[in-house]
Specification:
The protein is an alpha+beta fold. Helix content is 55%, strand content 7%. A five-stranded mixed β-sheet has the order 3-4-5-9-6, sandwiched between helices. A two-stranded antiparallel sheet has the order 1-2. Helix 14 crosses helix 22, helix 22 runs antiparallel to helix 23 and helix 26 runs antiparallel to helix 27.
């Protein structure tokens, strides 16, 4: 690449935030290759250092990582929020080259020896806990990356890494494609009976965006997709049982070798049908991924991949994880069975003349919740317009952590018109920033919600680089109502919880005080501790004082009425046993597959065996939820999904500290909030999370608060 071309490529602008208005797929390959070229040149020089110090060894290596992270990080971010065929093609072209370079660094004997020498100079070079942790983590990661391997073993290990990177991308793309391919077009009043006006507005808007330009809220047509804001309310509210079954089967079999999410009866749709049954089949990929991970583990000297995964986590071993799952299941399982039995009885009382099926559970759960607590999600939506929720969430952060959050006045380039950019201030000075991408976008944006790193904090004698985060959700978008005109995003209460969750992740990234790039924010934080700050923030949405800050009717400004708030609190633990058992099921199957699967069994048989003990209603014979389980097959949670429950124990115990201090005690909240900020949020990966938690709480966490928050009692 020539010098002028380098200067023009927006991905190579290292001094500024990514210029998302200029980045196109054609920039990806040359930018990545240029970054890799410079990285290799600098790596060659660094490998010649014989007497490593922090300044002549760690800092130059950091510069290599930073340059690569900025280019590749922006590319991967766009893969999640602005996916396209051209971008995929470019990503697939250079991904093997990126993996190859990452292996070159992680398997460099010269670098490994340098880290060892640096560790031997602890007294003079590792002058802070952060530096000691960084070096220890570098040595551990090098061993896990195969630095000690030689000859055929190293060659095979590297082949596995390249294959796994490719397979993960293919897995994720298949899920996105299967999601995009399913379109259920509804045209009659019977087909949308029971569905709220807010859903019909979004479904009509989606239909219009897909060529049905005459679509409107009241007369349709309406388009159902497998994006969460579309299918989840449909399953909760659609009175047409046959259509609920169709949509449920589509979600349960997505990317499982049944075309566009499942068989679609012609009578119900004129959407996209007839796709090849093998086009989006992730079962073979799962088998291959699991076999390769097991082989990788054995090459490294471990029994299985679960052991590899836990080498860098807070949990000491698989036995401890199973102990947590089993102990929680002892409480959750009988409660879940009782909940489903009560739901089946309720459904019969409501006129269901059949056994309760999986596609009935969301519908009758919502009806029973409405009957028990006398409110609907649709009653809540008008009180939670996104702008008001954001203002209140930011006010809570100010009260607890002494920071102010303001929409940035800078002209920051964005990848979509709906994206917003905010600055975080402390003592009047900017300390961090973040992007917020709040709404679902069918076709180009993957499902779920996440926080990712754009820039990490780093402080040197010359400058301090401030952290920048991506906060991404898939919430309900604004709509244009035929009568009212434009209407803001009106959030479900679940979407409010999700926003608080991702904001919690963002706070840990942004409020770090660690100056070392490798340990700031969430870097070097053990994976099963990283969900603590996110889950901690969710607790606040059930506090009246916070509700008063985040609620305000989009038309009148009225706060959420006390009667509705009391109903939300009363319903908080509705179906809690079922929800917990579901998460334990996901956690156990993840561990089981990564500990025991060797290819001699069928993955689906292992799934069914665990499901028999961890589900109350039998799964569909062709259930393929694993085929869209991107967390463990494409998202970094392999043998780590238990982390959500592990961290939930920590987060519940942490919030209990605020309850004990008194949630109405402003002075106590301020003091405790600052201690939480100065420990959990500030220390990042500079110290072990158990040590950090003990400094905040004064003791280790117990499961008592988690059970109490879920309305459960410890098993006898």
């Amino acid at each position: 690449m020539s010098a002028p071309d380098v200067q023009k490529n927006p991905l190579l602008n290292q001094g500024e935030l990514p210029d998302f208005t200029k980045i196109t797929a054609e920039h990806v390959v040359p930018a990545v290759r240029e970054a890799l070229r410079l990285g290799k040149e600098n790596l060659a020089r660094l490998e010649q250092v014989t007497d490593p110090t922090w300044n002549n060894f760690v800092l130059p290596l950091r510069e290599i990582s930073r340059r690569i992270d900025r280019v590749w990080g922006a590319v991967n971010h766009l893969m999640g929020v602005k996916n396209s065929d051209a971008l995929r093609s470019a990503h697939e072209t250079v991904q093997p080259e990126m993996v190859e370079f990452q292996l070159q660094i992680s398997q460099s004997r010269a670098l490994y020896n340098g880290w060892q020498k640096l560790q031997a100079k602890a007294d003079t070079e590792l002058t802070t806990p952060a530096r000691a942790r960084i070096v220890a983590a570098a040595l551990r990661d090098a061993k896990l990356a195969g630095v000690a391997l030689e000859g055929d073993a190293q060659k095979r290990f590297n082949e596995i890494q390249r294959d796994l990177a490719s397979l993960s991308t293919r897995f994720s793309n298949a899920v996105l494609d299967a999601t995009k391919a399913f379109q259920l077009l509804l045209k009659t009043a019977d087909e949308v009976a029971g569905l709220p006006e807010s859903w019909r507005a979004i479904a009509a808007q989606t239909a219009a965006a897909n060529g049905h330009t005459d679509a409107n809220t009241n007369s349709g047509p309406w388009l159902v997709t497998l994006d969460f804001p579309s299918y989840h309310p449909f399953l909760q509210h659609a009175q047409n049982r046959a259509l609920r079954e169709q949509v449920y089967r589509a979600t349960a079999t997505r990317a499982g070798g049944r075309g566009a999410g499942g068989v679609q009866p012609a009578s119900a749709t004129d959407g996209k049908t007839g796709h090849s049954s093998e086009k989006w089949n992730n079962w073979p990929l799962i088998d291959e991924i699991l076999k390769l991970r097991r082989e990788e583990a054995q090459i490294l000297g471990y029994k299985n991949f679960a052991e590899v995964s836990l080498a860098g986590k807070m949990a000491p071993d698989v036995a401890k994880i199973r102990e947590m799952i089993v102990n929680l299941a002892k409480v959750a399982r009988p409660q879940a069975k009782a909940e489903i039995a009560a739901l089946a009885t309720f459904a019969k009382e409501q006129g269901l003349n059949d056994e309760l099926q999986l596609w009935d559970v969301p519908f009758y759960s919502e009806r029973r919740r409405e009957a028990l607590y006398n409110y609907t999600d649709e009653e809540l939506r008008p009180y939670f317009p996104l702008p008001k929720v954001l203002d209140g969430m930011f006010a809570l952060a100010e009260k607890l952590f002494a920071v102010k959050i303001r929409k940035s006045t800078e002209n920051v380039p964005l990848w979509h018109k709906d994206v917003q950019f905010f600055d975080v201030l402390a003592d009047g000075k900017k300390i961090a920033s973040f992007y917020l991408d709040p709404y679902a976008r069918s076709g180009e944006k993957r499902g779920g919600a996440w926080m990712d790193v754009c820039r990490q904090r780093e402080s040197t004698a010359q400058q301090t680089i401030l952290p920048v985060a991506y906060l991404v959700c898939n919430g309900t978008p604004p709509v244009v109502n035929q009568v009212e005109g434009p209407r803001p995003s009106l959030m479900t209460f679940s979407e409010v919880e999700t926003l608080f969750h991702e904001f919690g992740h963002g706070l840990q990234h942004m409020l770090t005080r660690v100056d070392e790039y490798e340990a700031s924010g969430i870097s070097n934080v053990e994976w099963d501790a990283v969900e603590l700050p996110s889950q901690f923030m969710e607790n606040w949405v059930f506090e009246r004082s916070v509700i008063d800050q985040i609620s305000g009717h989009y038309q009148t400004g009225e706060l959420l009425p006390q009667a509705l708030f009391e109903k939300i609190v009363a319903a908080k633990n509705y179906m809690a046993g079922s929800q917990m058992l579901r998460q334990l099921y996901f956690s156990l199957i993840d561990i089981e597959l990564h500990e025991k699967y060797d290819g001699s069994q069928q993955v689906v048989d292992i799934q069914k065996a665990i499901a028999a003990d961890y589900t109350v209603i039998a799964q569909l014979p062709d259930d393929a939820f694993l085929c869209s389980f991107t967390h463990i097959f494409a998202g970094g949670y392999a043998a780590g999904y238990y982390s959500y429950k592990w961290a939930e124990v920590l987060s519940a115990d942490a919030f209990a500290a605020f309850e004990e201090a008194g949630l109405a005690n402003e002075k106590a909240l301020h003091e405790l909030g600052r201690r939480y900020r100065d420990t959990v949020l500030a220390l990042g990966g500079s110290r072990h999370p158990l040590e950090v938690y003990r400094e905040f709480r004064g003791r280790d966490a117990t499961i008592d608060a988690l059970l109490r928050h879920n309305g459960m009692k410890p098993a006898a």
